[in-house]
Amino acid sequence: QAAAGGGRAALRACGVHNVCRLLSRRAHGFYARDAGVAHRKNLGLLRKIMCQESTKFKNVWTTHSASPIAYERGRIYMDNYQCCITSIAQQPRLIYQKSKCAKSEKIEDALLLECPLGEMLPNPSDYKASLIVLTVQNWLLRLSADSGEVLEKVYLAGSCCKFFRYLSWDTPQEVMIVKSAQNKLPAAARQAGIQQTVLFYLAVFQVLPLSFIGMLEINKKIFGNSVTDVAVSNGILIVMYSMGLVRLYNFKAILEQFMEQPYDLGQEFNWNGQVGVVGKYPFGLPCNIKITDTPPLLFEASSLENAFQIGGYPWHYIITPNKKKHKGVFHICSLKDNALAKNGIQDMKCCSLEPDWIYFHPDMSGRIIHVGPNLIKVLKLKEVKNHADQMEIAEDFTIVANRENCVNNNVTVTASGRVVKKRFTLLDDDPEQETFKIVDYEDELDLLSTVAVTQIGADGRAHLDFHCNEHGILLKSIPLKESWDVTYSHEVYFDKDLVLHIEQKPNRRFSCYVYQMVCDTARDDD
After folding, report:
1. pLDDT band at 1; cut points 50, 70, 90
2. Which sign does the torsion angle of CA 153, 156, 159, 165 carry?
3. How many domains does the chain have?
4. How far is CA 133 from the centre of its chain?
5. Is 318 a member of any domain?
6. Can you tell me the mean pLDDT for 321-325?
7. What residues contact 372, with CB distance under 8 A and at least 6 apart?
8. Which domain holds residue 167?
9. What is the pLDDT of residues 271-305, one digit of tens each?
10. Does any domain span residue 425?
11. How many helices (H) and strands (E) does the chain have?
């Protein structure tokens, strides 16, 4: 009561009587006692320091590995998650190193689990970050992020499914989906005329505390013969088909409507006449959600290669017309009535080996990012003047690759005066021209980051640029010291004062380069 009274007094003192206005003022840090004010100020200071001309990013650590390297929130994982290294320290250092695991214990997929704010949890270990991993033998393990110790373990595969392979979030940090590989019959069984109707299994878990919600199957008899893949995101079941069709269903309604009986981990149950324990070997999990009829369809669209995205405000979706000749052409349509937005056809007309790509901006602004070889467009949705019910796509800002020194003349004259005509023109993503390879968003610093690469002979050079997320202004450019081969696979992470580059070379050779922010480097070689 005293706290409530103090809050009302503060409202009266500042003259704010509207809840929306109060929340807006809090978001902008008007109240010094607000818990997030200091954090926002610190991030603002970090952004200013980082973008100063005197601030450099120094390559402080490099390593190579014969197994994949992964990065999650300041932690570098190697040797199939058996080795964990912190990248937060001034020099990356080992957190833990576990003994080499057998092939039967190989980890197929992993998710980082972080403690929710303001919730009471049953175990002290729940308040620290942990890693949820899926092994090749269908064990779901929760590991301590600090020691690698096994905190919880659940056996997934009962008599129904033997190949769980993928982890994903339905609701981030709340509801997790474990998906099986697609069920395929051996060739001999197919030749014998045996039919396989179950394509995928999905196991659904609530996390922290880890609890089993249910398991369901995706069956040809319900969803059709041409299903190629399924996914769950934000309460929506997404079913993809071989002819480019994408269908959306209400996943929460499916769980409620077709749940036969709820089960808890550790609970005894009777399955096909055998008594087992939920989540324990050898019984695993019961398939307690049986879809007996086609669920109500929320939405469907046809798109090339099943490419389909939803976002913006009001809700819009992005597709590519389902014909190969339209590859690289994107239609932005209203989810409400399928109406194409004004200027809603986006086509960069690129002549390149790698296609351009488009997606809704992850900053929740409703904007759209369209990336081509030498151009990045940030687009926004806005109402058409005098037509409030119609939306149009407008350009917010663009970022252009630096190709000032690029000469692409079709006609050249030799020293002797002979005129030579080229029979071909350079591609838009020709390695000798600066080309955008990666675009990302750092949410805590509100910066848009881009990686641009130029191949000079056998040596490729890349630089990471930071742009103002609101206006696209270039604030900082960081040259990457290592050579960048455009034929290799690359990942670049920008995490506050850290830049991390993971490279995959042929024959499963992996490299990791860590850059740390340093100030006043006049006396350094860097």
Report:
1. very low
2. negative
3. 1
4. 17
5. no
6. 92
7. 348, 350, 352, 356, 428, 436
8. 102-185+195-302
9. 777 788 999 998 899 999 999 999 999 999 999 99
10. no
11. 6, 36
